[in-house]
Write a structure and sequence with these properties.
The chain is globular. It contains 13 helices and 12 strands. The termini are far apart. Helices cover about 35% and strands about 15% of the residues. It is an alpha/beta fold and about 400 residues long. The structure holds pyridoxal-5'-phosphate.
């Protein structure tokens, strides 16, 4: 976007950029919010000379605003919005060719595993699942044909923390690019490009949108060549978000910073309950000093996030009972919105990874801690655990 002073991270802070970057005043009315541009086509001044937009799959003003704002928040040059997080991931993965190899972190989101193993691999791409906290294992898995290392940090649902700078260095040593799924951390808490990653992907359905009312995805990169390839797929395949979806996501971004602060404060209160509870075997939250990724998280994140997982004494049956017994925490998939959600990953979000190296423990419960009244959340969970 030309002359977008508010997109400059050296000039403006995160909250200001979230509210202003990529969002010029409407030249006709001066409206302070970006209009929802519903037009599918745009008039041309002469044959072949248009004003930046010709057809809405190729480019749309509301989408441009979202892309520019998000790229600024991630500190990247190029942002490309998609109809879902999976469509964003797919657009990056489509640059792979038969014979190429990919390394996937071994507790990635189940949908990422499904996309790679059942859509991308049958097209001739080889892949390996690796524990990315083990640099020796990563180095052993890297090959001359490795094009991408695909990491999440913190991971879904085990909250494992991957050292972005160390993994980027190992990937770059063999000429591979590091892709980081930054959905859990959000650009408010972590900017992977600043630590050496080449590409950031997001499910904007989660914290970015923040209100469980819009599905979307985003790719951000500084790499001009990859950005062009992703933009090509965006237009050629057409998995684009509608203008209203872009507007909702952009609106979500404006309050991301304040929401994240509250998500984190509530997560800490919930963790305090869980660590002392006799029915809880293990609490997984990077903010705990005993968490194996705590130091790396403290180095590369600005806070520890609002996602908390825990293992319950009594195995799968007890875990499903807890997940079904809360009232304020609602039993549902997804995460990152204002309302608190509880789920059993083994049966729900990560069922597609059953029997694979990415299978999750069946005594695991995942919480997306929302921004409700802190005491209500703590009392709700305590009640559900006491029923065991
Ligand atoms: N990445 C992560 C970490 C996710 O949790 C999800 C969805 O849960 C996705 C990607 C996929 O995003 P979407 O559901 O928007 O397609």
């Amino acid at each position: 976007m030309a002359d977008d002073a508010f997109a400059d991270p050296t000039a403006y802070g995160f909250e200001t950029r979230a509210i202003r970057a990529g969002q010029p005043h409407d030249p006709t009315s001066g409206a302070v919010t970006v209009p929802i541009s519903l037009a599918t086509t745009f008039v041309q001044d002469e044959v072949g000379r248009h004003r930046g937009y010709e057809y809405s799959r190729t480019g749309n003003p509301t989408r441009t605003a979202l892309e520019a704002c998000f790229a600024s928040l991630e500190g990247g040059a190029h942002g490309r919005a998609f109809a879902s997080g999976m469509a964003a991931e797919d657009a990056v993965l489509r640059s792979l060719r038969p014979g190429d190899h990919l390394v996937l972190g071994d507790d990635a989101y189940g949908g990422t595993y499904r996309l790679i193993s059942r859509v991308i691999a049958p097209m001739g791409v080889e892949w390996s699942a690796v524990d990315l906290t083990d640099l020796g294992a990563l180095e052993a898995a890297l090959r001359p044909e490795t094009r991408f290392v695909w990491a999440e940090t913190p991971t879904n649902p085990l909250l494992t923390v991957v050292d972005i700078a160390a993994v980027a260095e190992a990937a770059h040593a063999v000429g591979a690019r590091l892709v980081v799924d930054n959905t859990f951390a959000t650009p408010y808490l972590q900017n992977p490009l600043a630590h050496g990653a080449d590409v950031v992907v997001h499910s904007t359905t989660k914290y970015a949108g923040g209100h469980s009312d819009v599905v979307g995805g985003m790719v951000v990169t500084d790499d001009d060549e990859l950005a062009e390839a992703v933009a090509f797929v965006q237009n050629a395949v057409g998995a684009v978000p509608g203008p209203f979806d872009c507007y909702l996501t952009l609106r979500g971004l404006k309050t991301l910073a304040v929401r994240m602060e509250r998500h984190m404060a509530n997560a800490r209160a919930v963790v305090d309950l869980l660590v002392d509870h006799p029915k809880v075997v293990e609490v997984l939250w990077p903010g705990l000093p005993g968490h194996p990724g705590h130091e790396v998280a403290a180095r590369q994140m600005r806070g520890f996030g609002g996602m908390v997982s825990f293992r319950v004494a009594g195995g799968r049956e007890a875990a499903t009972r807890v997940a079904a017994s809360t009232r304020v925490f609602q039993l549902a998939e997804s995460l990152g919105a204002v309302e608190s959600l509880i789920e059993h990953p083994g049966v729900m979000t990560h069922a597609s990874a059953a029997g694979s190296p990415l299978e999750v423990p069946d005594d695991l419960v995942r919480l997306s801690v929302g921004i409700e009244t802190t005491d209500d959340l703590v009392a709700d969970l305590a009640r559900a655990l006491d029923l065991l």
